[in-house]
Design a protein that fits this description.
The protein is an alpha/beta fold. 39% of the residues lie in helices and 17% in strands.
Length: 254
């Protein structure tokens, strides 16, 4: 586990923040204020009342061009609705554009968001089938990064992969243990995070770098999450963040 907890801003590029130039401006300000990372949600649709959404990859490209130090990435990309070869091109291009600052968050995706609607988008609705698509997609993605496609990523041995896990489901922990980090969703308290951290230690081979990402809303104290084992703490907002509230959190500092 990493020794120092880093701090990031985490926004949904929805509604007012569906303008990529605005999100890039917020990220540039976060970098000036000393934040370590800037992450965005990845959706093509969302449940009501959200209507306006920005593409996360174009938005992150804008962020990369306005920043020099921030770690950036999507939290999380539902790989079962993406073509792995297309995602390989997008991730490598963004990793090179940002000079090695990309982290890729991945997960199954949730039908509750309105995204995995077979009637609307033709997406796979069954979670077990999506889990297989996720694992198969990750295998393909690694093969493309490892020389199947050129150019390769800047980062070696690969672009870090953080795997999402929705509390209290434990199956994703085994998947996360094979990669570079865990992003737990809907944790009830820091004690739950500490429990996941202990379980992951038993699953992982070796003592290599591994990130634990905890989220809480702007204004909440990150200290209990960091004490529970978080190596990253992300300050989040609701699904309709406003410029003013994100600016206030950024200005408050990490």
């Amino acid at each position: 586990m990493a020794a120092r907890a880093r701090r990031a801003i985490f926004v949904a590029p929805f509604e007012e923040l569906s303008e990529p130039t605005l999100v890039a401006e917020l990220a540039a300000n976060a970098e000036r204020k000393g934040w370590d990372g800037f992450f965005v949600w990845d959706h093509v649709a969302y449940a009501e009342p959200v209507k306006a959404l920005a593409d996360p990859w174009v938005t992150l490209a804008a962020v990369a061009m306005r920043t020099e130090r921030l770690v950036i990435g999507p939290l999380v990309t539902p790989l079962p609705r993406r073509r792995p070869h297309q995602l390989a091109r997008e991730t490598v291009t963004l990793d090179r554009l940002s000079r090695g600052r990309l982290v890729l968050g991945v997960g199954l995706g949730s039908e509750a968001t309105g995204e995995f609607d077979p009637a609307r988008f033709g997406e796979e609705g069954d979670p077990k089938a999506r889990a297989k698509l996720l694992d198969d997609g990750l295998d393909l993605l690694l093969s493309y990064w490892d020389g199947g496609f050129e150019p390769r990523p800047v980062q070696r041995p690969r672009i870090p992969i953080w795997v999402a896990a929705r509390w209290p489901n434990r199956r994703p922990l085994r998947r996360a243990a094979r990669y570079d980090g865990l992003f737990p969703i809907d944790l009830p308290n820091p004690d739950a995070l500490a429990q996941m951290v202990d379980e992951l230690k038993a699953m992982r081979d070796g003592d290599g770098p591994f990130d634990i990402v905890a989220e809480s809303l702007a204004g909440e104290d990150p200290a209990p999450w960091i004490a529970a084992g978080a190596t990253w703490h992300v300050t989040g907002f609701d699904r309709q963040p406003t410029r003013a509230e994100v600016e206030a959190a950024i200005d408050a500092g990490p």
